[in-house]
Amino acid sequence: MFHPRKLKLLTVFAAVVAFLVFVLPPITYIALRYQHEKAVVSVETHVNALAVSELINNNPELWRFEQLRLIELLSFRSGSVGAAESRTVFDIDGTIVAESRRVVHAPLIRSTRLLFDAGRPVGRIDIARSFREPLVHGMGIAAISLVVAILLFLGTYGLPLRTLRKAFNDLRQEKEKALITLQSIGDAVITTDVNMRIEYLNPVAEKLTGWTTLEARSRHMDEVFKIFNEKTREPSVNPIKECLDTNTVVAMENHTILVRRGDGEEFHIEDSAAPIRVSDGAIIGAVMVFHDVTDRRKAQNRLHHIAFHDELTGLPNRSFFQESLRRAMQEGHVLNRRVAVLFMDLDKFKTVNDSLGHAIGDELLVLVAKRLQACVRDHDMVSRMGGDEFTAVLTDLPSAESAAIVAKKIIKALSTPFELHGNTLRISTSIGITVFPRDGESIGVLLKNADTAMYHAKSCGRNNFQYYISAMSARALDVLYMENALHTALDNDEYYLEYQPKLDLKTRRIVGVEALLRWDSPQLGCVMPSNFISALEESGDICQVGSWVLETAIAQAKVWMDAGRPMVVSVNVSARQFKQPDWVDEVMALLDTAGLPPGLLQIEVTESLLMDGADRNEAMIRALTQQGVRVALDDFGTGFSSLSYLRRFPITELKIDRSFVVDIRKNTTAYKVIKTIIDLGQALDIRVIAEGVETPEQYGLLAEMGCDEIQGYLLSRPLSVPAFEAFLDNFGGGQVAACQSQDKLQ
């Protein structure tokens, strides 16, 4: 029998040991799991809040109604497999906007994050995760520990001292059973002594570290558990060291990477380390529980990529651009460095979409993005703003003029033809450049000024770059005012046509007119076409206005024909209008409706229009001429048409550009060019008309060279319908003959 005092001590000892055996395993497990689950819920709430806030920033007014997109964002779930969660988005008033709900059993771990629009809270996102499963596991461990504790207590209390050794052996066996329990959980577990020497690794830890328990035992933790920071690639402080130094539970820092021994594979890991204490509070070691979150991190990165990158090209999107520019401006302000913003818009990209389809257009944008990235330095950034607009942020520039070097590289790179599905595509870009801090000290101002400079580059002929200057802002306001007025000009009947006569030099009769568009704006007065046609083309309104011109000119030609004055009316057509797939049908329908013979309509096209998509244009022109419509090549001699093009296209008339006619007497080259064009027309049986004839001397030389027709101020300025009809009434052969001695024929 035990001595009473020894028996009491033995009883107390047995009770304490049993209590520790019963309490420590489940409490340790539950505490570590709670820290893990809480961190997971917090991270997922933060990630989802970022994604939803990005959606709100892109669509601040209607985001509450994009439930499908919100539910899609909420569906990115990177937590532990099988964990039940409830995810809900509320607006600022607490109304549920979207939810991704599963049955979630108490107890719950909750996390809430605010949603922001430009820094202003507009709602919140709540995530609740069930903690029932870890509690069930903890209770399982507690049950096992309870059985072990009871057996230990009974064994220690009931056996005599001679069986104490056997009791300790039993305790060791029960400890092994507890270790088996640790080996069965899904998390990795490592225990050490107070000197950070490895004592135990469970199978999951062995798999992730590449060390077995036998290999790792007694080795220092830093040798077995090699971790570093994903972003800095610098070694991270081991959490066990921190927990032993501070005597507290320590969570791993964010972006921790574990390198496995042997193959060097890297794993994203998360969780924490805690000190192991005995009954008197003394620390005898530490335990670290961690798990592989590589798949979850990939999901987070994917979610981040969706929120901050363009889906088509993979380039940073507008949000990423603004954030990068903000950081670059902050660094530039502190370090006194220049930052340049290049705003790029592709020229004629819409033509590719309209003619070849959006699929080809998308592929072209991808190739453009690659070429743009190749033109900038590694630390510079190219982004896609949307459509065919791109930006570049150039940092640490030695001078403002350094941005021009990059702009020239970009222009050269994009001028090289693209080959796509058997198509040779030629595009260019117009670039506007602003420099921080010279041209602005805020993102909005820099971007607006770069956009203004880009439009100035377009107005200068495209395929060039322009630095922003303050005078551009005033010019941009004038252009904007004109564009706004143009949008309503057609509906308000502000357009009208004037007609300039054409004279046949052989018969000395008026044989045709050119219909010329005029705009009488109530605000701007009479605006000449050279000042507003480009704006119509940029806005796309040129097609609608062009249809009105065609319809009006055809109707007027029919009136003159019915009055016994049939004459050919010429109408200029823009490239965008000509490329409409049903345009030929539209022309023939207008002729049929008006009852005008096709031979009394002449379409004027430019050389550049003719050569842009030659195969399609040949079919269009042939379709017109086969039905009797005449086609004239306008401004001939200023482009790059070759003899083969003239033989290929069924052109009925060549119009010599006025720039040659002006210098016909003083410039020998101009004289020879005109003579060559006239001879060429006669050889190909194509009529030749000279425009811009203003003097009797020009008239006489053109008649001597055999030119077929003339048009210009010598004959008449463009006239309204009543004025033109009066001109016809007063016109006579004697007046034609007087052209050789008079300044004007009226």
UniProtKB/TrEMBL annotation:
UniProt xrefs under InterPro entries: Biofilm_reg_signaling, EAL_dom, EAL_sf, GGDEF_dom, Nucleotide_cyclase, PAC, PAS, PAS-assoc_C
Pfam family membership, one: GGDEF
UniProt keyword list: Membrane, Transmembrane, Transmembrane helix
Span of domain PAC: 253-305
SUPFAM superfamilies for the chain: EAL domain-like, Nucleotide cyclase, PYP-like sensor domain (PAS domain)
Sequence ranges assigned to domain EAL in this UniProt record: 479-732
Any one GO molecular function term: catalytic activity
Residue span, PAS domain: 174-247
Transmembrane annotation, as ranges: 12-32, 135-159
Domain GGDEF: 337-470
Protein name: GGDEF domain-containing protein
